[in-house]
Design a protein that fits this description.
mainly alpha, 4 helices
Length: about 90
């Protein structure tokens, strides 16, 4: 029985070898990263919300404004938090 050993190879080595089987895929991916189409910033977002095209982290990174639906949801959440934790709220500590 023969086992195949997977050996890591650097992306720069794949990009430098046009005959490598993954060369065209890695090249296309790196072009998308370089153009900003794909972000390699790691975040813990759940993904796009409120009809926005990107997650909140990516929206901020690209300097895009939040959608009206997102703004309304934040305002609602802040009102509800104020009712619970603000003066006279259930958890205000007063």
């Amino acid at each position: 029985m023969t086992m195949t050993e997977n050996k890591p190879i650097l992306i720069k080595d794949i990009l430098g070898d046009p005959s490598h089987p993954a060369h065209s895929d890695i090249k296309a991916f790196s072009e998308k990263v370089n153009s900003g189409e794909i972000s390699v910033n790691v975040c813990a977002c759940i993904g796009p919300v409120y009809g926005e095209p990107h997650c909140a982290c990516e929206m901020r990174r690209r300097g895009l404004p939040p959608s009206a639906e997102h703004v309304a949801a934040l305002e609602k959440a802040n009102r509800e938090l104020a009712e619970l934790f603000g003066p006279g709220g259930k958890f205000s500590g007063a």
